[in-house]
Write a structure and sequence with these properties.
Elements: E1 2-6, E2 11-15, E3 18-20, E4 23-25, E5 29-31, E6 41-45, H1 48-75
Antiparallel strand pairs: 1-5, 2-3, 2-6, 4-5
């Protein structure tokens, strides 16, 4: 099957749950070799740098929000022993 979308090493293809190899077709597109019969083909784009970028984003967000809460507690002099 020829799919005229840009090729990248990060593309994965699954035929009925089994991973198949994504090949380069006509210099910049992708193709998957399939046998005869019916197929359920699924393409997944999964770059490692995107995944780690999302993890880094959420870690930074958590650190920032924790810092804001800490500063607010110090600013307002809120301590757990004084809360009623």
């Amino acid at each position: 099957m020829y799919y005229s979308d840009g090729f990248s090493r990060n593309w994965k293809a699954f035929d009925g749950g089994k991973e198949v190899t994504v090949e380069v077709a006509t210099y910049n597109f992708k193709a998957v070799f399939l046998g005869g019969g019916d197929h359920l083909l699924r393409f997944v784009y999964d770059p490692w740098y995107y995944r780690y970028g999302v993890y880094a984003y959420y870690a930074g967000l958590f650190a920032c929000l924790s810092g804001v809460v800490f500063v607010r507690m110090k600013w307002w002099d809120i301590r757990p022993d004084r809360m009623e």
